[in-house]
C-alpha cells in the first residue's frame, strides 16, 4: 500500500509534446505538492494544493498546469515540452499546509529529446 | 529573507567513521521549523526529523543525532559509525508560516560511505 504514488515512473518524449503525470495519496492528507528536481539535485517547489485549492504557485511557465480533482489526487499537465523540462518531478503530501513532514512519491523522471 | 545553506556539497568517508553534515539557516521569524530529509540512490525522499524553534534539545535516534543551536542558526546532523547504506543526499529545510507556507530547501550534501 504505497502512501504516495505517481505514474508514470519514467517518461520519454519529444519536444513540443504534451504530457501528464498523475499523483495519488492514500494518507488522508489535506495538502499536496509538486516539486521539480534538476540534475544537480536542487529541489524547487512548483505548486501546492490544500483541499483542492491552489495555495502555492511559484514562478513556473504557464505551460505547466496542475489539477486537483479531489484532495487525494494532484495531476500535472505539461504543454509544449521543452528540453529544459527534463528533470525528476516529485509529488508530495502533508497533513495540512502547516509545518508537517512531507511524504514523497517515488518521482517521475521526465526526459525530453 | 529565508535561506538554508549546506556548505558541504560532497563528503566521502570510510565505513565506521563519524560524519557531521552542516546546516545553517537564516530567518527573521521567531517561530520556525527545521527538517532533514534523506535521498538514497534509489531516488525517493525520506523524512528524518522535524524540529521547532522553541525546542533546542538535541535529538538522538540510533546512529543519527541532531544538534540544534539557535545562537549559531545551525541544525547539524551527525551519523555515528557510518555504514554504506547511509550513502545518500541529505537535505536540510526550513519552514516558517510567514513564507507562503513552503519549505525552503538547502542544496543538499551528497554523502558517500565507502567500505
What's the quick description here?
Chain A is mostly beta strands and 113 residues long.
Number of helices of chain A: 0
> Which sequence of SSEs, written as H and E, runs from N to C of chain A?
EEEEEEEEEEE
Largest interface: A-B, 22 and 23 residues
- Largest sheet report of chain A: 7 strands, mixed
| Overall geometry of chain A | globular
Helical content band of chain B: under 10%
The total of beta strands of chain A comes to 11
Tell me roughly what share of residues is in helical segments of chain A: under 10%
Rg estimate of chain B, integer Å: 14 Å
* Oligomer status: heterodimer
Structural class of chain A: mainly beta
What does the radius of gyration of chain A come to? 13 Å
Which structural class do you get from the secondary structure elements of chain B? mainly beta
Mean pLDDT over the residues of chain B? 94
Average predicted local confidence, pLDDT of chain A: 95
- Report, as a whole number of angstroms, the end-to-end distance of chain A: 34 Å
Distance between the termini of chain B: 41 Å
Shape of chain B: globular
Question: What is the string of helix and strand elements of chain B?
Answer: EEEEEEEEEEEE
Report on this structure:
The complex is a heterodimer of chains A (113) and B (115). Chain A is mainly β and 113 residues long. Helix content of chain A is 0%, strand content 56%. Chain A has strands at residues 4-7, 10-13, 19-25, 31-37, 43-50, 53-57, 64-70, 73-78, 87-94, 103-104, 108-112. In chain A, the strands form 2 sheets. In chain A, strands 2, 4, 5, 6, 9, 10 and 11 form a 7-stranded mixed beta sheet that branches. In chain B, the strands form 3 sheets. In chain B, strands 2, 5, 6, 10, 11 and 12 form a 6-stranded mixed beta sheet that branches. Helices cover 0% and strands 52% of the residues of chain B. The mean pLDDT of chain B is 94. Chain B is built from no helices and 12 strands. Chain B is mostly beta strands. The interface between A and B is medium-sized, with 22 and 23 residues.
Amino acid at each position: 500500500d504505497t502512501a504516495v504514488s505517481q505514474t508514470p515512473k519514467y517518461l520519454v518524449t519529444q519536444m513540443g509534446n504534451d504530457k501528464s503525470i498523475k499523483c495519488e495519496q492514500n494518507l488522508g492528507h489535506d495538502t499536496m505538492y509538486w516539486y521539480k528536481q534538476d540534475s544537480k539535485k536542487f529541489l524547487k517547489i512548483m505548486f501546492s494544493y490544500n483541499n483542492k485549492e491552489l495555495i502555492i504557485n511559484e514562478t513556473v511557465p504557464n505551460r505547466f498546469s496542475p489539477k486537483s480533482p479531489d484532495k487525494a489526487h494532484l495531476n500535472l499537465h505539461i504543454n509544449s515540452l521543452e528540453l529544459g523540462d527534463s528533470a525528476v518531478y516529485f509529488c508530495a503530501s502533508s497533513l495540512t499546509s502547516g509545518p508537517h513532514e512531507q511524504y514523497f512519491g517515488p518521482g517521475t523522471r521526465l526526459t525530453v529529446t | 529573507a529565508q535561506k538554508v545553506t549546506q556548505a558541504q556539497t560532497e563528503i566521502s568517508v570510510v565505513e565506521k567513521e563519524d560524519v557531521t553534515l552542516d546546516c545553517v539557516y537564516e530567518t527573521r521569524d521567531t517561530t520556525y521549523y527545521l527538517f532533514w530529509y534523506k535521498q538514497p540512490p534509489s531516488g525517493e525522499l525520506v523524512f528524518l526529523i522535524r524540529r521547532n524553534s522553541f525546542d533546542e534539545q538535541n535529538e538522538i535516534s540510533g546512529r543519527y543525532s541532531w544538534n540544534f543551536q539557535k545562537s549559531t542558526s545551525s541544525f547539524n546532523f551527525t551519523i555515528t559509525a557510518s555504514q554504506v547504506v547511509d550513502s545518500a543526499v541529505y537535505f536540510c529545510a526550513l519552514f516558517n508560516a510567514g513564507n507562503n507556507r513552503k519549505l525552503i530547501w538547502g542544496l543538499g550534501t551528497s554523502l558517500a560511505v565507502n567500505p
